[in-house]
Amino acid sequence: MPPALFDLAVNRAAAALRGLQPTDPAQALATWHARTRFARRVPLAAVAAALAVQPPGPAPWHWAGGPEGSWQPGKAPFP
């Protein structure tokens, strides 16, 4: 899988969960994943693992570097 595709999936998942503020984030993530174009190419477990280590706080963060990447300060270069 291309690193940029993974980054996009994680960043969009993070944005979706921020907007929904679900009571059950795992279920909301699974529902989001099943409805996206990422479902066949980016494993849900990998997206969940990246989201699990997202830094707390109000500052914007984005994932960069593909599956081996990390959270970076600031907004993602792609929405």
UniProtKB/TrEMBL annotation:
Region: Disordered, residue numbers: 59-79
Superkingdom, natural source: Bacteria
Protein name as catalogued: Uncharacterized protein
